[in-house]
Write a structure and sequence with these properties.
Length: 357
């Protein structure tokens, strides 16, 4: 889209008049960052508020999960493979970065297939991949498990921690703690599950939804569309990212995901256990389930005093409402996961809100 069109869209957003205050929530960590980085958030009309939701998979991962991963590394001497944004996430007592510094074999990979290659080339060592993400990454992790089985690689497993986003939004609305008029839906997740998967949100809760992309024009177009839907009482799901997202999603990716995983209850930071919001490894592939392969009893879960990540992920506060933000909690020494991940709301506020200066 050319610059002239983007300027016109920006003017339309900046000059849009609202008759009453309006609160919209994005449930995608990339949207959290891009609304800041692009400057779109700075041209919101008066009375429009963007609320951050549980859209960062690293942020919503509960301490108990990471405690277990660390205990597996300690007790069983396995190679822990992980995406880089999990390294500095504080667990109850430590982090993967701290464990690596004290001798644990922790390796940063760019995909689960990289972790499988480590297992392939070192058959004498067990490799456990820390599998954290939403529906976007789950199909690739499923494909990796299938590839391990087909190749007869038995020294590889995953620690399933993937989560499903629609049940999380339903749970958030069911809590009734925060008023939200409509939702900006994640483009990456929706490319997998499809725009129709979000229909329960307007049908059950009367909240309009817009699937949006990540370029500046996408953010503006999605925001304008959602404001108009709210104003006109249009309680449906609109797809403003049709060049990528189909109503039924990606059937191949969904089939792969469902072949290896099945829905299970999962704990979300700040929300608690949400029924059917997690992905457990099916019995057929249980030899690749790190929880079953390496049973451990981690120490009691402990939350960090003063960290308000849980409230932030429920839309109750802004990052700057936390007394630790920018003081005790900074990117170089984060207290909570919302300051660690590049998709975390605290990290976005800090980097693009001028706090790093």
């Amino acid at each position: 889209m050319n610059n002239e069109t983007v300027h016109k869209l920006a003017d339309a957003l900046r000059n849009h008049r609202l008759d009453a205050p309006m609160r919209i929530m994005e449930v995608c960590g990339t949207h959290t960052t891009e609304f800041f980085r692009s400057g779109v958030r700075d041209i919101f009309p008066a009375h429009l508020t963007l609320v951050d939701g549980p859209g960062c998979p690293v942020c919503v991962t509960a301490n108990a999960y990471l405690d277990t991963a660390i205990e597996i590394g300690r007790a069983h001497g396995v190679i822990i493979a992980t995406f880089g944004d999990m390294m500095k996430v504080p667990s109850s007592y430590s982090s993967l970065a701290e464990e690596k510094a004290t001798g644990m074999d922790v390796r940063v990979v760019y995909s689960p297939m990289d972790a499988l290659e480590i297992a392939r080339h070192d058959p004498a060592r067990e490799v456990v991949f820390v599998s954290v993400g939403f529906e976007t990454t789950a199909p690739t992790e499923a494909a990796t498990v299938i590839a391990a089985r087909d190749a007869g690689i038995r020294n590889f497993s995953i620690l399933p921690g993937n989560k499903l986003t629609v049940p999380a939004v339903e749970a958030l609305l069911s809590l009734g703690e925060v008023h939200i008029d409509g939702f900006i839906l994640p483009g990456h997740v929706s490319a997998i599950i499809g725009s129709e998967a979000w229909r329960p949100i307007p049908e059950r809760f009367g909240k309009p939804c817009v699937v949006a992309g990540f370029e500046t024009a996408d953010l503006i177009t999605g925001t304008l569309a959602l404001m108009k839907m709210i104003a006109s009482n249009d309680r449906t799901v609109a797809n403003e990212y049709a060049r990528v997202v189909r109503p039924g999603g990606n059937p191949t990716a969904l089939s792969m995901m469902r072949r290896v995983f099945e829905p299970d209850d999962a704990e979300w930071r700040g929300i608690g256990v949400i029924p059917g919001s997690g992905l457990a490894v099916r019995d057929e592939f249980s030899r690749y389930d790190g929880f079953k392969k390496f049973p451990v009893t981690p120490p009691p879960v402990k939350e960090h005093p003063g960290c308000r990540c849980g409230e932030l992920l429920r839309g109750l506060i802004a990052p700057t409402d936390c007394a630790l933000f920018g003081a005790a909690c900074r990117p170089e020494r984060p207290v909570g996961p919302c300051m660690v991940s590049t998709e975390g709301p605290c990290a976005a506020f800090y980097k693009y809100g001028g706090f790093d200066r």
